[in-house]
Amino acid sequence: MRIVTASEMYEVDRFTMEEVGLEGKMLMENAGRAIAEGIMKEISKQDEILVLTGPGNNGGDGFVIARTLYLKGYRVRVYSLVPEEKIKGDALYHLNILQNVGVPFHRLQNGELAVRLEGMDVIIDAMLGIGTKGALRSPYAEIVDKANKCEQAMRFAVDIPTGLSSDEGVETEVAFKAHKTFTVQCPKESAFIEANAQYYGELEVVDIGLFTESLVNRPGKKVWLKEDVVRTFPVRERFSHKGSHGRGLIIGGAPNMPGAVMMAARAALRAGAGLVSIAASHHLISTIAPYVPEATYTDLNLKTLDIDSFHAAAVGMGLGRSEQSASLFEDILRLANIPIIIDADGLYHLKKMKNMLKEHTAPVVLTPHFKEAADLLDTTVSALKQNPFSLTRAFSTEYGVYFLLKGPYTIITTTDGDQYVVTTGNESLAKGGSGDVLSGILLGLLLQSHHITEALCNGRFIHGKTAEILTRHTHSRYDLLASDVIEGLPMTLRTICK
After folding, report:
1. Which residues bind K(+) (predicted)?
2. 132 labeled part of a ligand binding site
3. Exposure on the CB side of residue 414, measured as CA atoms within 13 A
4. Backbone angles phi, psi at 112, to 5 degrees
5. pLDDT-based confidence at residue 112 (cuts at 50, 70, 90)
6. Residue 214 sits in the same domain as residue 240
7. Any binding-site annotation on 86?
8. What per-residue confidence (pLDDT) applies to 121?
9. What does residue 244 show for φ and ψ, rounded to 5 degrees?
10. Given pLDDT bands bounded at 50, 70 and 90, which one contains residue 216?
11. Do 244 and 192 sit in the same domain of this protein?
């Protein structure tokens, strides 16, 4: 499912109308009806419904929504925040139909807000769409503030909450706070910016028949969905053997963090890896081995460890931050000619040796959270949270790495600049060890998949989906442990592999 900026959405509209030949009036009708159908699933005919509209296409969608609800027997009225003469084109066409049908319609009078919001059960925001720039002005700022204070009302936004930009990088002062947003055809880039989530609420995409083919040759941003996982998940052949599913190496295990490599190894094996070896300090092996009897073990000595005899490796989990571990990490990065996942302490050491990435011929996958990523990108966490797409894309293409920016909305960027957003998971994963488990899952799928991008997207998807399933059935969002996620993988995999 494609994610778009405002300019890309305008291009999709233009292509659909000018090249394909669908009229704007028809598209507006499709959008309004589809959103009305979604809203009707959430409300009742006893509710008092108010539709707030502006001058453009967003307002036109609102007219169609109001008319559709009215003809279905709902108690609805429309309030326009602009004089009627400012409503033009396709929106005016649908306003005329609205008035001909007899839907109660009120407008801004002499610049005064005569609208009554108190007592409304449902408020629908169809005021401003994707063309919004800058802070909200009067009367929108006042009406949005009043609407947000109506705690008793269910609030819906049409396409994008009024006050938000469609694109990343724009700070928001005030915006309509929806419980649910029905976005048209494609989710907008800003929906995946952390600060905006409180305004979007739940996000539902409605297909109205727009054609996105005009965007095919551009670097893309997409949401990775369950159907993508089912379509691309590695298939285990009937006569395969353990060597068919890859031989992975996990390097780490500082004295005070033996659990990190242990969990990563268990996760890799649960995710389907054929063989997993752990390279750790020799005095730790006896501690770790009872918890992962299926793995093999080797002393962490690069003079005797043949890294390239493995198909892929993960390094950094519990590696430590000493000068000795920094030297060890540098040697691994220099010697390894296999795909390598770098996490945790590996990312810490990488800050001082980023240029080595450009010399690494085999694929490199970085898996930072926001603080680790900000340090790598020489920026601040706040700047990165405002511009996660552009900043990670610039880094990935410059250094030739796959970049998995961990968060509630994880953004995975390829070396070519294509980006994928995975939205599974919940706050139960905000706990130590979750990243180690994710790295293990990624390694397991990297060993089995033909395409690195698919392995990363699928690994992050099943990691988050497992947390969702477990907190729905057997755990709370407080007590879930990283090790619980490992043991919950079979439930998720059974569902996907069907």
Report:
1. 58, 125, 162
2. yes
3. 16
4. -105, 145
5. low
6. no
7. no
8. 96
9. -70, -20
10. low
11. no
Report residue 79 as tokens.
């309030």
Annotation-wise, does 260 bind a ligand? Answer: yes
- Say whether 73 counts as a known binding-site residue: no
58 labelled as ligand-binding? Answer: yes
Q: Is 162 annotated as a binding residue?
A: yes
Domain extent at residue 331 = 226-497
Token duo for residue 6: 């405002």
> Are 65 and 124 within 8 A, CB to CB?
yes
Residue 84: pLDDT band by 50, 70, 90 thresholds? confident
Last residue of a domain, one of 199, 218, 237: 218
Q: Is pLDDT of 111 > 70?
A: no
Q: Are residues 246 and 201 in the same domain?
A: no
**Residues 347-395: pLDDT tens digits?**
999 999 999 999 889 999 999 999 999 999 999 999 999 999 999 999 9
Among the candidates 162, 194, 218, a domain finishes at: 218
Predicted TM-score (pTM) of the model is 0.94
Establish whether 94 is an annotated binding residue.
Answer: no
In this structure, are 44 and 120 located in the same domain? Answer: yes
Question: Which residues are registered as beta bridge partners of 298?
Answer: 279
Residue 1 lies in a domain: no
Q: How many CB atoms lie within 10 A of CB 164?
A: 26
Q: Tell whether residue 397 is among the known ligand binding residues.
A: no
Asked whether residue 410 is marked as a ligand-binding residue, the answer is yes
Q: Per the structure block, which two tokens stand in for 353? A: 């040796």
b/e per residue, 357-381, with b = 16+ CB within 10 A?
beebeebbbbbbbbebbbbbbeeee
DSSP state letters, 114-126: ----TT-SEEEEE
Is 484 marked as a binding-site residue? no
195 is in an annotated binding site: no
User: 154 and 234: one domain?
Assistant: no
Domain of 189: which CATH number?
3.40.50.10260
Token match 């326009």: residue? 80
